[in-house]
C-alpha cells in the first residue's frame, strides 16, 4: 500500500477515492515512547475505514521511521494486526496509538 | 563461627522486602534456548539459587557465539550448548543446583517434562519455536517469560496463561523469512522489490535442496546466484553475499550488553512471577498483608518491556488477551477435554488416525504443537510416553486433543 492511501493534512481532507466515495478522515495521535515526553506525540489524519497497515504508514511518516525498521502499533493493550481494519479495534477520533519495535526475534 | 558473618550465600538478596529465598529454592525453570539470552538467564537463575533448571537446545556451539555466550569458550565449539552449559553452571555458579538437559528441538521435549515446571524462560531465536513454546505454556498453564533481542533492541514478554496476552494474540505476522517458507504463495509472480528477489531465492533454495541454507561458502554462493538471476532479470541492484546473508538468514545482530540487560529483565520477571505463584498457597490474612506490601512497593509484572540501547529507554506496556486468539481465546482447543488413548508404541500413527476417521467418518491430520506428524511413522519414533497430540479434521473445524500412553510390551506367557 502506498502513501496515497493516507491523507496527511487538513486541506486534502476532502479528497475522494474511486471506490469509497468521499473518504472520512479522523485525527489520531501516535506516540513513540522512545522519545522524550515533549516530542513523543504527533497527530495525523487517516481514513476512518482504513487498515492498521495504513496507520503504520502514517506513523512512519509522522516520526520519519524508515520502512526497513519494523514497527507495530499498540492500542489499549492490543498489538494490532496490520491486515485488520482500524474500526475492528474500536479506534476513534483522538485515539493514541503506541509505536513499538516489531519482529524482534533473536535469542 | 562468628555470628556476625552471614550464614547464607544469599544473605544480601534475602534482605529485600518481598523476597522469599526458600520459595526460589523450590522452583523449577525450563530454559528453552541456551544462546545469547539463555546463557545469561542460566547464570542469573543459578546464582539466585533456583531449585532446578531444565535446559533445552539442539544447537552446537559456533565460533560466532563466543562474542556473547559467556558459558562457552573456544574448546567447546561443535559441542551441544545445553550439555556444555550444564557443566559450566555446576562448576562456576552453583554446584548444588539440579540440572536436567535436553539436547533436542523444543518440539521434541516429552510432554511429561512440563508437569514439573513452574515457569518457562523462552530464549529461542525464531518465530516458529516461540509460537510452539507459547502453545505449550498455554496448554499446561505455565507462565512463560519470553525474551528476544535484535541488535540494539531487547524485549521481554510475560505471559500468564488466560490472563494476559499470549504470543499468538492478535495473530502477529511472522517475519518475512518464516513467511516465505510457510506460505510460498506470498512470493509468487514478478518480484516487486529487490528484497523480493532475495525471498524468491530463499524459497527456490529450499525447494531445490529441501532445507534451509547454512552459513557455508557453498550455500551462500548458490543463494547469491539465485537471487542475482532475479535482480538482473527485473532490473534491481545486484546482491553482495554479505547483504544477502543479513537479509534472509535467521541470524540477527547480537550484542552482549543488550543480551545482558534483556536477560536481566527477563530473570527479574521470572522471580516476580514466582513470588506471585506463592500467593496461591497463602492464608487470607497473609495474602492481604502481601497485597498491601505489593501496593506499597508498586509491585507489577508488565506484559511487555522493551529496551533500546540506542535511546537508553526502557518502556513497559500492558497487553490484554485477544478474545479471538486461536491459542488462548474463546476459539482455542487447548481448553478442551483431553481424550486418553493407551496403545503399543510399535503401532504407526495411522492406527490412531484411522480409528478417528472410522468413528467420525471423515479424514484427520495429526499435530504436535504446530508441526504436522507423519502418519506412516511408528508412534515411538514420533512421540514419547504421555505426549499430547491434536487430531484435526481435514473437512471442518472439529479437533480432538489426545494424550497417548504407551502400554507396556506384552510378556510372553510361560505356561499355556
Ligand atoms: Zn492468545
**Domain count of chain B:** 3
Classified in CATH, the superfamily of the largest domain in chain B is NAD(P)-binding Rossmann-like Domain
Classification by helices and strands of chain A: mainly beta
Q: Main interface pair? A: A-B, 22 and 41 residues
Largest sheet of chain A: 5 strands, mixed
Low-confidence stretches of chain B: none
Round the Cα radius of gyration of chain A to an integer and report it.
14 Å
Provide the list of bound ligands, each named once.
zinc ion
Sketch the topology of chain A as an H/E string, one letter per element.
EEEEHEEE
The total of beta strands of chain B comes to: 13
Query: Considering the protein shown, what is the CATH homologous superfamily of chain A?
Result: Phosphatidylinositol 3-kinase Catalytic Subunit, Chain A, domain 1
Mean pLDDT rating of chain A: 84
CATH classification, class level of the largest domain in chain B: Alpha Beta
Structural class of chain B: alpha/beta
- Parts with pLDDT < 50 across at least 5 consecutive residues of chain A: 1-18
Mean pLDDT of chain B: 89
Shape of chain B: globular
Q: What is the highest CATH level, the class of chain A?
A: Alpha Beta
Ends apart, CA distance between termini of chain A: 32 Å
Order of helices and strands of chain B: HHEHEHEEHEEHHHHHHEEEHEEHEE
